[in-house]
Every structure is written in C-alpha cells, then in structure tokens.
Q: What sequence folds into this?
C-alpha cells in the first residue's frame, strides 16, 4: 500500500517534470498559445497592478523622499543653477538672434550690390563727451580694414572708418556732426551733400538751386573715387522736410537717416565694390500701408420708444 | 486527498503571486529585491509532502513563467520549481532539526533560493536567455539572497500558520 503511494507520488513528479519540459519545448518552438497565455495573465494582472500603483504611491513617495532627502536638496540647488544658466542663455540667445537678423539684412544689402564686405560686431559706443558719434568694432587692420572704408548697417549707410587699430576700428557714424557724404536722389539723380547733426536727422545741401526735391525722396550715396570713403548706391535716408526759403543760395532739406544707430550691434565694412555702379537697386521698398478694417454697425429702430 | 489539498492551496498561490506582482514589484528595491512567491512556495514545500511540494512547485513555477518580468521560455521556472520544491521537501521532511527551528527554515529557504537562481541562470544560458552582464547578474543574485534572508524570518510565521490552517495540521513553528 505504502509502496503504491510512493509509486504514485513518483509518477506525479515525473508527469510534472515532463509537462514542464513539454512547455519549454512548445515555447521554444514558438507556439502562439503560450505567448497568448502570458498576455492573458498580464491582462488579468494589470488591474491589480494599477490598483497597487494608486494605493502604494503615497508610501512609495514617502520612502523615496526619505531615501532621497539629501539628493533632493542637492537636486533643487542644481536645478536652480541650471535655471539661472538657462535664463542667461536665453538672454544671450535673444541678443544673438537680434545680431543674426542684423547680419542677414546687412549681407542681403551688400550682396544685392555686389559689395565685398567683412562683418564686425560693435564692441563699444563712443563717449559723447566730445560730442562725436562713434562706435568701436571688433576687427581692425588684421582683418583688412583701412581708414575711410564705408560701414553699412542693415538699412544702409552707418558711417565710415575713422581710425584703424590692429584688432579694432573706430567708426564715425553718419550722425556725427563732422560726417559728410555726397548723395544723390534716387530717380532724379540730383546731387547734394549730407551732413550729420548729432541725431538721426541729417541736413541735406543740394548743389543745384534750380532743382526741386520732395518729401519722401530717397537719398543714396553718390560714391567716391576708388570707392573710398563711400561706395555708390547705398541708401542713406529720405527727405522729411524741404527748406524753400527765398533767397537761399542752395536748397536744403532735412533727411531722416535709415540706420537706427541706437540699436547697432552688427555692421559690415565694405572692402571692395564692383566696377559697375549698382544704381538704384538698393532703394528700399516703400512700406505698404496696413489696411484698417472698417466696422459697419446696422441699427434697426425699435417700434416702441424706450426709456 | 492530494487533489483537495492542492485545490485549497491554489487560491493562496494565486493570491501571493498577485501580491508579488501588484505590491512587491512596485517597490524598486536595491539589489533586485525579493520574490515572495519563491519564498512562499519553498516554505510551503518544506512543510508539505514531496508530492504536494512538487505540485505546489508546478503551480508556482507556472505562475512565475506567466509573469511579464520572466525572460525565459514558459516552463523554465516550472521545471526548476518542481525540482527545488521536491528537494526542499525531502530535506525538510527528513530533517528533524528543522521542526520548530526558524533559523534552519530560513537557512534552507535562502539556500534554496540562491541555488534555484543559479539554476535559472544556468538553464537560461543553455536555452539562450540573455541575462545581462556578469557584474550586474552577480549583484542581483547576491541582492536577492540577502533580501530573502531578511524577508523569510518575517513571513515564515505567517506562511507556516496559513499552511497549518489550510491543512488542519499543527504549525511547525
């Protein structure tokens, strides 16, 4: 009887082992039923696991907070430092974006006229204690900069190279009172001399008193011999007021300069210009007026008067 | 008799397995943590006859094979658990020193877990299961053994009383 029970027990163990080996064989042969069984078990288990996650999350968080107390504090400090660094990077990025925009525009301008330019970053604004309007750029004679070269902004003329050092150069801005440039009016080709007045408006003195200028006329640089100090065809500004006083020897006008001198961060120094005068190709397009929408209100009178 | 016993034990195995998957696995314990189903089935096997231990091992192994965390083929854990549970059952029933000796129980259970893990690695290597680098495997193996050594004395009275309650026998501990 006892031997029979032992025999049954051994048989059971053998059956179980053979079953396990059978399962391994089936699984290794890629029978889909077994994989389906594993998926089914996971389907059954997943609600329990989700419930476990919900129920245990406060405990897990508590344990995690306790075990990571020191690490959390140092992590906060690290995140604060990272945040400050990212803020600084963001500010630098905004600055870089503005410089990039200026650079693209100035390259577009120079490229349209076929000028050979070298870009420079404004590293300092000149002191106004001597009433001069200057800037210093980060390139000098080492980069091929020479005195009396034209300096462009993204809008047009910015100034002229006044002094050159090995790694920097002093630029006299078009607003400088000593600044003089020969200009012509786009289209009519009338010529004159523009001089700085210390701010964004400059004074235009026309050579020929018989010519007539109009508000809105665009001025371009006339160019110099060997393109120094000025290359031809660069936008300078537009006329905002004309002085028609009787008896004046030469007609004069007030010109609003295109370049925003307060926001200069990138400029281009013209190293060379093509033999052909670019003419009026650089004349900026007139701004298109934005249409203002008209609002029409229809009111239907009510048949009975209201109080 | 054996059919009645195993049908009584089956819900307990499933309950422990669900507890393992839903609760124990939620805590990412260092060193790999512990397997409650492994500890339970080995303690249960020590307290049972070899036939019942083999059946219990079969159920536990099958459940472990069906777990998503199992990387080996279905049947690998089943085979190992049948062998492990049979072995500890023979050792437990043949050794008088284990009766009423929690330390002996703990030592036997932990040793069995260590050996069954090594057997899993060995058979896994033969069956082409990827288990990771040597150092990580060693850390996990040692971690599981240490965790089992810590957890087994805590759960031993509970499982022992549960076994006694299920089969109407006196608790050995």
A:
């Amino acid at each position: 009887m006892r031997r029979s029970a032992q025999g049954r027990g051994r048989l059971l163990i053998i059956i179980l082992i053979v079953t396990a080996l059978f399962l391994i064989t089936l699984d290794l042969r890629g029978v889909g039923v077994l994989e389906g069984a594993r998926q089914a078990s996971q389907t059954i288990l997943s609600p329990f696991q989700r419930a476990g996650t919900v129920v245990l999350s406060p405990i897990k968080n508590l344990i995690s907070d306790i075990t990571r107390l020191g690490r959390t504090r140092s992590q906060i400090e690290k995140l604060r430092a990272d945040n400050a660094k990212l803020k600084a990077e963001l500010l630098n990025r905004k600055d870089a974006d503005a410089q990039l925009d200026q650079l693209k525009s100035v390259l577009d301008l120079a490229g349209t006229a076929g000028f050979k330019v070298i870009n420079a970053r404004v590293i300092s604004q000149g002191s106004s204690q001597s009433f001069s309007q200057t800037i210093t750029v980060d390139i000098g004679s080492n980069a091929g900069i020479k005195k009396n070269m034209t300096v462009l902004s993204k809008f047009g003329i910015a100034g002229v190279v006044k002094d050159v050092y090995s790694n920097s150069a002093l630029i006299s801005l078009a607003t400088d009172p000593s600044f003089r440039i020969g200009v012509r009016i786009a289209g009519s080709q009338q010529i004159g001399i523009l001089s700085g007045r210390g701010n964004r408006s400059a004074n235009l003195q026309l050579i020929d008193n018989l010519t007539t200028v109009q508000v809105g006329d665009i001025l371009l640089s006339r160019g110099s011999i060997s393109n120094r100090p000025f290359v031809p065809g660069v936008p300078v500004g537009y006329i905002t007021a004309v002085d028609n006083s009787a008896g004046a020897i030469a007609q004069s006008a007030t010109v609003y300069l295109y370049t925003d001198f307060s926001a200069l961060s990138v400029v281009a120094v013209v190293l060379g210009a093509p033999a052909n005068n670019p003419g009026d190709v650089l004349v900026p397009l007139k701004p298109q007026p934005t249409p203002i929408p008209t609002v029409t209100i229809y009111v239907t009178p009510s048949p009975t008067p209201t109080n | 008799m054996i059919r009645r016993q195993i049908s009584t034990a089956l819900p307990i195995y499933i309950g422990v397995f669900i507890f393992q998957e839903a609760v124990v696995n939620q805590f990412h314990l260092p060193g790999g943590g512990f397997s409650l189903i492994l500890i339970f089935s080995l303690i249960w096997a020590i307290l049972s006859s070899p036939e019942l231990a083999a059946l219990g091992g079969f159920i536990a192994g099958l459940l472990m094979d069906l777990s998503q965390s199992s990387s080996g083929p279905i049947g690998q854990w089943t085979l190992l658990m049948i062998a492990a549970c049979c072995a500890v059952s023979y050792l437990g029933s043949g050794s008088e020193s284990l009766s009423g000796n929690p330390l002996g129980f703990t030592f036997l259970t932990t040793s069995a877990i260590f050996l069954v893990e090594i057997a899993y690695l060995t058979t896994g290597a033969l069956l082409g299961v990827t288990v990771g680098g040597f150092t990580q495997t060693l850390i996990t193996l040692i971690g599981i053994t240490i965790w089992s050594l810590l957890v087994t004395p805590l759960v031993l009275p509970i499982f022992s009383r549960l076994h006694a309650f299920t089969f109407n026998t006196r608790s050995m501990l």
